[in-house]
Design brief:
The protein is of the alpha/beta class. Helix content is about 35%, strand content about 20%. The chain is built from 16 helices and 22 strands. Helix 5 (about 145-150) links the parallel strand 9 (about 130-135) and strand 10 (about 160). Helix 3 (about 85-100) runs parallel beside helix 6 (about 170-180). The two termini are about 45 Å apart.
Length: about 450
């Protein structure tokens, strides 16, 4: 971490000293007292299962130099304890200071689907030229983004930060921390429409990113997304578009060839042209790669280095992770789901030569759109030639309905309410050489299905 003194922390978070004196320097920040060490700032966050305020003294005992709290705590040690109205927001204010001091080329990424893959690809590309920071796993919220920033030290020369949201204001707060030179919006889909009400409102929430993008920076948009293109001229920064279907986009993909485990295409635009080979299945990954290529070109990464980086990149876990489990193949894509990503995963499954099994669970946060969205995915199941459909959850039953109504034999459809109920059906229905796609929203916990398949086939 870029070192920050306790006195500076007190000032930047607008806090009040409850204990001790503002002495010492912080070189790491944690929200888990078990990770506290010398020169650590411990941030006490109230949680559903545990309240960090109960562990302030333990953090000090393990070497923490300071603590942030949002309610008064009693401690026996004379260490500085800073009171703030909201510890998460205070952590964000500190992260903003650290980012300003880091002062490196930065890419901020948001969108409804494809954020993490775009982040990983962009990180791979920029790492061909820079020592590049990125979020770990799903650290893309108001806790995860600051913790990512605090991982940076003086050796970091670029950053790629993914930002997620559930409602208005979150991207505003996150992008105020990141203040990117380049902003990427992957698309405007249906995720979080339950809270936001419409795709136009989803755009409004995502576009909060632009207010904190450097004025001399760039905004990179999906040229295939009608909503993004409708608002393109409202953006004050330079805009670059990428597109698979839109031939007028600044950067485009052509000669796309999708194999079982890889995709290749020709990247071209603005005087650049080269072949890209992606070591992951699915044509949907082409759009994510276009963003990474555009960001790489903007920051001066040579074309050959971009192509080489993408050829070697790897996906974050539980995203299109192809696993051989005994006599079957599992496509483990159960980290999260939206209608568009489920459709893309079904397209990947359709490319496999062996018997195709889709284990699909509920897609969360669709609100009034949930019924139609799930039923439409049932039509996608049939269109993609899936041989066996197993649905898990109340809303996923509508996927089964949609598949049946579009011609899938009812003998090839199984619907259950819970993950535990699915195991006997998996044991009796999965055959040798089957390819099994496992996908649902994170709340469904379908990684348990993947583990069952690993252990029983």
């Amino acid at each position: 971490m870029i070192p920050v003194s306790v006195s500076e922390i007190l000032q930047v978070v607008g806090g009040r000293l409850l204990h001790g004196t503002p002495a010492g320097t912080v070189t790491s920040v944690v929200t888990d007292s078990r990770k506290a060490a010398e020169n650590t700032l411990f941030v006490a966050i109230p949680g559903e299962n545990a309240d960090g305020h109960a562990f302030v003294e333990k953090a000090f005992a393990q070497g923490a130099v300071c603590a942030l709290v949002e309610r008064e705590v009693e401690i026996s040690l004379n260490h500085p304890v800073i009171f703030v109205e909201n510890t998460v927001r205070a952590m964000g204010a500190l992260a903003q200071l650290v980012m300003k001091r880091l002062c490196v080329p930065t890419v901020g990424i948001t969108g409804s689907v494809g954020k993490t893959t775009t982040r990983d690809m962009t990180h791979a590309v920029l790492s061909a030229k820079f020592n590049t920071l990125k979020n770990k796993n799903n650290f893309n919220n108001e806790i995860g983004v600051p913790l990512t920033v605090f991982e940076a030290d003086e050796t970091i020369t670029a950053a790629v930060i993914e930002m997620g949201m559930d409602n208005f204001g979150e991207i505003d707060r996150l992008s105020a921390i990141v203040q990117p030179n380049a902003a990427i919006v992957t698309n405007i889909g249906m995720s979080h429409i339950e809270r936001l009400g419409s795709q136009e409102n989803i755009y409004r929430a995502k576009s909060e990113l632009f207010a904190h993008t450097k004025k001399d920076g760039v905004v990179i948009l999906n040229g295939d997304d009608k909503i993004l293109m409708a608002h393109k001229d409202e953006i004050s920064q330079k805009v670059i578009t990428v597109g698979v279907k839109n031939p007028t986009a600044d950067f485009t993909a052509s000669d796309i060839k999708a194999e079982e485990d890889s995709v290749t295409f020709r990247f071209s635009g603005l005087g650049h042209e080269f072949k890209v080979e992606l070591p992951v299945p699915g044509e949907h990954n082409v759009s994510d790669a276009l963003f990474a290529c555009a960001a790489g070109i903007y920051f001066g990464v040579p074309d050959a280095k971009i192509a080489e980086a993408l050829q070697k990149f790897t996906l974050t876990g539980m995203r299109m992770d192809i696993i051989r489990c005994g006599s079957i193949t599992v496509i483990n894509d159960c980290y999260n789901a939206a209608p568009a990503s489920v459709s893309a995963a079904l397209s990947v499954l359709s490319k496999r030569r062996d018997r195709k099994v889709a284990v699909l669970g509920d897609i969360a946060a669709l609100g009034a759109y949930s019924y139609n969205a799930h039923r439409e995915l049932g039509a996608e199941v049939t269109k993609n030639g899936i041989d066996l459909l197993i649905t898990v959850g109340e809303n996923a039953r509508f996927i089964a309905e949609g598949a049946f109504e579009n011609g899938m034999d009812s003998m090839n459809i199984i619907s259950v309410d819970t993950v535990e109920e699915i195991y006997p059906y998996l044991s009796s229905s999965i055959k040798e050489n089957d390819v099994v796609l496992v996908k649902a929203s994170r709340v469904m916990g379908l990684e348990r299905v993947t583990e069952f398949l690993k252990n029983n086939f």
